[in-house]
Design goal:
This is YadA. It is built from five helices and no strands. The protein is an all-alpha fold. The chain has one domain. The longest helix is centred in the middle third of the chain and has 26 residues. The model has no long low-confidence stretch (mean pLDDT 78).
Length: 103
């Protein structure tokens, strides 16, 4: 495994991954902040969709780090990782996470 891959894996698994617990916390926060006084359904839906997208991308990165990353010289450039993740999700992946942890 390349040193860059090890460093990315260390950072990701060291607390920068987006866990199911964080997803649950974000959802409960949205529910707790719900109010009939103002209509903000589009913003709320966007925040919830973004949380799900972060979680899906995080899980895909966890899979990549658990399997492909152990090859002697894996191609883990951001574009390669994005192409690996894209078929697993009907929506685009959270590119910010990909850029942080691949390359």
């Amino acid at each position: 495994m390349r040193a860059e891959t090890q460093e990315a894996m260390r950072m990701f698994l060291g607390g920068r991954c987006y866990t199911a617990k964080q997803l649950e916390k974000d959802y409960l926060s949205e529910v707790a902040g719900y109010s009939d006084d103002r209509w903000e359904a589009p913003q709320r839906a966007a925040r919830l969709a973004a949380a799900v997208k972060r979680y899906k991308t995080s899980e895909m990165l966890r899979f990549i780090f658990a399997t492909i990353a152990y090859d002697p010289d894996p191609d883990l450039t951001p574009l390669a990782v994005k192409r690996l993740c894209q078929p697993c999700s009907a929506e685009p992946v959270a590119s910010g996470l990909l850029w942080k942890f691949s390359g």
